[in-house]
Structures are given as structure tokens and as C-alpha cells.
Write a structure and sequence with these properties.
Elements lengths: L8 E7 L2 E7 L9 H16 L3 E6 L17 E6 L6 H9 L5 E3 L8 H15 L13 H22 L4 H19 L5 H8 L7
Parallel strand pairs: 3-4, 4-5
Antiparallel strand pairs: 1-2
Helix pairs in contact: 4-5
Length: 205
């Protein structure tokens, strides 16, 4: 029954190595129905806390006014769905009026979905998880410690190369950096990987 959705559904997807948690909420529209008002209220609350908002609209109604979205334009991507229902003239009009923050899709045919995924990825990389100096923000203390250890090991490796010391000393520092990074991603360095590294050097006993 239209207008009775109150709760939301969540699902996780990965795009180019970035994890997204998608939340499907109730729609937004003017209403006096108490049940629908509760759904709209919950939707707006989720929009406020979201990093990115996908404002999905019906492409058949793209020229209708929208005074009820209240979405932050800086973090909003407008998605006009059902473009498969448009005729050729309507599609040409869409292309002519296209904006960079609008994506045209068809959930039925899959058209535009790859473009939408790329926009999500670009938005996440460009606006979130970075400070004003464009340095990546690390919030996990253990990860920070491991990254710092890896940086120090790589610095020692670079210094060893600069000083033209034996290759085995370089390999030791690279091994240390690999171990530190492995602590972050939960991967233990295997002998096969080490063999590949040491195969690049002529190491004495």
C-alpha cells in the first residue's frame, strides 16, 4: 500500500575496493497521513547522517517541482530512473539538459548503473575520509601504529639503497614493511611472496 513504508533496508556493496552501506528508505512527498509522515521523518533523519544521498526520482516526472527533498546539495546525486520508458524525443531532451550531479538510469535494463557506481566512488574518494591537507585519516590506533612501522621500515630501506649497502639489508627492511602492512589487512606474508622478493637479489649466506 503506497505511503505505508516506515522502516529502511540496508545492504553493503563494494565499488573499486571502497565499501558502501546503502540504505533504502521511504519516499519523500507532502502528506497528512500519520503513518507516511513517520516514514518521511525517518528518511530525513537518515539523509542528515548519510555521507552521500542518492535522490531517486521517476524520469517520467523529471520536470515536476521538488520542494520536499531537503537534501544537502553538496552530498546529493540526483538519480532519474525508468529512462527505458521514455521515447526518443524525451531522451534527447534529457541529454540536452544533463547536469554533472544527475545520473539517468534504468533499474529494469541496467542502463546508467555503471555510471552511478563511478559517481559514488568519485564522490567518496573526493569528499570523505580526507582532511583539509588531503592526507588520509586513520581512525584505528592499531592500523596507525602498523602504518607508522611500515613507513619507518621503507625509510630504512631507502636509506640503505642510498648508502649502497648490501641487498640483503634492503630485503630485511622490505620484509619488515610487508609484515606491518599484513597486520592491517589480516594477511600473513607467505614464503612464496618472500621467495619472489629474495629472487630479485643476489644474497650471500
Amino acid at each position: 500500500i503506497p505511503g505505508t513504508t516506515r522502516d529502511f533496508i540496508e545492504e553493503k556493496i563494494t565499488i573499486n575496493g571502497i565499501l558502501f552501506q546503502l540504505t533504502d528508505t521511504a519516499g519523500l512527498r507532502e502528506t497528512n497521513d500519520l503513518i507516511e509522515l513517520e516514514g518521511v521523518k525517518r528518511t530525513k533523519k537518515r539523509m542528515e547522517t548519510a555521507d552521500i544521498v542518492l535522490l531517486v526520482k521517476d524520469a517520467m516526472c523529471m520536470h515536476e517541482s521538488d520542494n520536499n527533498s531537503s537534501a544537502d546539495a553538496k552530498k546529493t546525486i540526483e538519480v532519474f530512473n525508468k529512462i527505458d520508458l521514455l521515447n526518443e524525443e524525451q531522451r534527447r531532451a534529457i541529454i540536452k539538459s544533463s547536469k554533472t550531479n544527475i545520473v539517468y538510469t534504468s533499474a529494469r535494463t541496467g542502463a546508467g548503473l555503471e555510471i552511478l557506481k563511478q559517481d559514488l566512488f568519485d564522490n567518496a574518494i573526493g569528499n570523505y575520509g580526507k582532511g583539509e591537507n588531503n592526507s588520509v585519516t586513520v581512525t584505528n590506533a592499531r592500523h596507525f601504529s602498523s602504518l607508522r612501522s611500515a613507513k619507518k621500515a621503507l625509510g630504512r630501506a631507502a636509506q640503505t639503497i642510498y648508502q649502497k649497502e648490501s641487498n640483503e639489508f634492503i630485503a630485511i627492511e622490505l620484509r619488515s614493511a610487508l609484515d606491518s602492512l599484513g597486520e592491517i589487512i589480516g594477511v600473513v606474508t607467505t614464503e612464496e611472496i618472500l621467495d619472489r622478493i629474495f629472487a630479485k637479489f643476489c644474497i650471500g649466506k
